[in-house]
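Annual report, structural modelling task.

Input specification for the iron/sulfur cluster complex:
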Amino acid sequence: MIDGPLGLLAELTHACPLSCAYCSNPLELTKRSAEIGTDDWRRVLDQAADLGVLQSHFSGGEPLLRRDVVDLVAHAAGLGMYTNLVTSAIGLSRPRAEALRDAGLDHVQVSIQADEPVLSDRLAGISSFDKKMEAARLVKELGWPLTLNVVLHRQNIDRIGAILDRVEELEADRVELANTQYYGWALRNRSALLPSRAQLEHAEEVTRSARERLRGRTDVIYVIPDYYARYPKPCMGGWGARQLVVGPEGNAWPCLSAHELPLPRANVQEHDLAWIWRSSPLFSAFRGTDWMPDPCRSCERREVDLGGCRCQAFQLTGDMTRTDPVCHLAPDRGLVDAAVAEANSDGGPSRSPQEPAQEPVLVPVP
Ligand code: SF4
Ligand code: FES
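The model returned the following structure:
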């Protein structure tokens, strides 16, 4: 018997007012006209609750661009789920925020790009820093726990001390300092985003001391970039093991980037979620360890990291069954080493937080 998923990531839309170059959305974004409707999402939430889902994360793109987001939050809350809004905060006006609170929204995660407007607005592609600060304060005022999510990369990681000062000023309950994962747009922009080893060491040192200072007030989560790790992450806690993603067009996925893989689709307009989760070829493809090639097949860590990330293997090697090239035992580790060597070839940009970061060579998300 396969256990049900714990969490549903509902990607309501790919549309977004920002155009961050590290976006993990697909290179081919779903058009607004192809998005599934409110009734489809209500049915997805009903079926998710029947499967045992306890947490719904409303995400995108920018979920606030969907007019029905308040209705969907209310529906999920009515099913007894813990509800989380993952937002850039653009569009989180006071009336909208109050409606979401009345609908039963439990938690808000706001993304920020940097600690100050010039760099933040450049990375976001639009003037947005002031709105984000205002929205973060509103989240606290309305009594929600506030999580700030900061995607770290070569262009902003040297400002981590100032970013943590801003986190403290906003009285965030939690901050996720998440080094960029190189999928989709981020992989395309990797050479402008991957930090040097010196930058990472500096960031880790600053984070360690901030964690001490903020203990008891703010949880500081630091996600290392897996290109610098010896072993891969057990992506999503395992393929089809704990989490389920439903995209704007109704396709269900075991993770955020599986749309790139040459696997059969499973759409919520054609199948119910229980069949998709338990029986679809897509969700069954990499469950457990039987699918593994060597060296994973005979490795003592195969139940720990489950061979790493299938999407990373596919995006770097063209073969989704290969060992994740991040693993130092992988036959393809040279691909990751080459990117790391390139990122360290010039020592990285200046680490002075006073100086503006170098102009990035970024391909913005349309
Ligand atoms: Fe994990 Fe496979 Fe590397 Fe072993 S060989 S550590 S199972 S990725
Ligand atoms: Fe798809 Fe890791 S993102 S398995």
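The beta strands are 7-11, 55-59, 82-87, 107-111, 146-152, 174-179, 219-223, 243-246, 252-253.
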